[in-house]
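Q: What residues go here?
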């Protein structure tokens, strides 16, 4: 996938929708690509995260029970795995397995911080998306505890 194609995919993600073009270009250029074969494990349930992954080609399935059972959690091209892990270390809630040959970009927290530090307007845009996600989560949780 060409650099401009990766930027187009990033721009389509809500978290990066309002990020400046220069910041998107830096992310797309700087993030290392990972190739997985069918059956390769991207990460295991309980692993401490160091960032997230953008699926460029192929499919990754999440196995929350870590027992190989079929899962409806499938990430295809253009989807982001581990958005929260872009900003904070979290335990992986499931094992991620490539269902077929898969190409990903790996976004470490360090890379995200470096790019957002260099592009404060982009950092503000990302902050607004994360804040809105937190508000939605809080609203959902308040309905569950009532």
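A:
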């Amino acid at each position: 996938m060409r650099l401009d194609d990766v930027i187009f995919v990033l721009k389509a993600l809500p978290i990066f929708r309002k990020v400046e073009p220069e910041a998107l270009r830096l992310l797309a250029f700087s993030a290392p690509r990972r190739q997985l074969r069918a059956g390769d494990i991207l990460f295991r349930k309980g692993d401490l995260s160091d960032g997230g992954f953008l699926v460029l080609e192929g499919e990754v399935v999440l196995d929350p029970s870590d027992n190989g059972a079929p899962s409806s959690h499938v990430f295809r091209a253009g989807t982001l795995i581990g958005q929260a892990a872009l900003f904070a270390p979290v335990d992986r809630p499931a094992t991620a397995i490539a269902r077929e040959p898969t190409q990903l970009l790996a976004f470490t927290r360090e890379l995200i911080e470096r790019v957002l530090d260099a592009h404060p307007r982009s950092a503000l845009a990302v902050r607004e998306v994360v804040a809105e996600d937190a508000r939605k989560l809080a609203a959902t949780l308040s309905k569950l505890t009532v």
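A: Context that may help when evaluating the design: Residues 35 and 49 are 18 Å apart (CA to CA). The chain has a mean pLDDT of 92.
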